[in-house]
Amino acid sequence: MADSENRTPRSLDIQAIKDLLPHRYPILLVDRILDYEPNKWVRGVKNITIGDPIFLGHFPQRAIFPGVLIVEAMAQTGGCLVLQSMADNKSKLLYFMTIDNVKFRKPVVPGDQLVMELEVISLKGKVCKLKGVALVDGQKVAEAEFMSMMMDIDPGEA
Length: 158
Known about the structure:
Blueprint: H1 14-20, E1 32-37, E2 41-47, H2 67-84, E3 92-104, E4 113-124, E5 127-136, E6 139-152
Antiparallel strand pairs: 1-2, 2-4, 3-6, 4-5, 5-6
């Protein structure tokens, strides 16, 4: 990801994210897109708070944000990148095909800010492949590769 470029960051607020993704509370796991380069890379954020409903059961005595939700947050961040560049994004959904090379490095807990950085490996037709990391305070907490397929939504569902 090219931070050294002399340009204004592109960002998406929560409303713009909701315009792209079909997810809603409590499974919408991206609070803001901090910056992106269309069809190349994206950086997004999820603020982890004790108010997240998952902490009622995971775990009551030691709140830890589940790894599977970190992976989902990364995938949603990547979905914002892929969908924002499409003129007809309201009629499209991304579905997982594969999740590979997932590694978790350290627990994510309430008070952490999860920063997800993903880059496009390939984008061919309806299939996209992304790889990325999730960071807290600049330290890698997770990494994964994703492959997704773009599907058309039935016009009655859009």
